[in-house]
Amino acid sequence: MINPVNYTGPRRQRYVANARSRKAQHPGQIYDSSIRRWIQEPPRVTVVLLTCKLAHAEAEEVLYGCNTFSFQTNTRLTKFLTSFDGPTNLIRTLKVDDYIIATAQPFWQALIPLVNLRKVSMGHYGFCRNRGRTQGPTSSLLVRQMTPLLKVLKCSYSKQGLTINPADVLEIFNTECESCSCGCGKLDRKEYCNCKYDEQRSVPKQQELFEAHRASLRDAVADMKP
Ligand SMILES: [Zn+2]
Ligand SMILES: [Zn+2]
Hints:
The chain has seven helices and six strands; from the N terminus they run ββααβαβαβαβαα. It has helices at 44-51, 53-65, 74-83, 104-110, 139-159, 178-181, 199-223, and strands at 29-32, 37-40, 68-73, 93-98, 119-123, 170-173.
């Protein structure tokens, strides 16, 4: 229940919707007792944002902080962030299915304003080192591209008294990677490989790669001057 308050203090009952002020014959409407008429019910989510500055700030924190912002590629996420003028600093969780290495540099740059970022989960495929033609990044390239963001997060976390490691912001989730399940040895010539996806083979390789990257990122964070 939302109780907007007038500037003078008393509660403004007009937009308070309760069960008794609704009727099936008036869908989407509420009864306004002050004018004795059925009026259009104001949209409830935006009402929270409009009540007052404090409620607006709190609702915004929940909206941006508790939701996962999901994108197909890092390229799209970069476009979103560079054109979005909302409070990006409140965003905590991002998900990217396909990591495109060609646009990785501007992507990591675009994340720098996200000082409260806790997790960016990305699919393994774009990181895979077993792919013949377009391999994923080496750990050292990843460290180089992520360092400006990691510095910002390290500073932000320590100011807030958080003990989480900024290196753990990156999470690479397993995907059905045929390159990692290949057993024919034609890894450098995938076009001739007919291996089917084999989870037993693929998952440990994907996990190993993620752990190698995470170890390098943790080393880089440990080496940063406070
Ligand atoms: Zn792979
Ligand atoms: Zn194969």
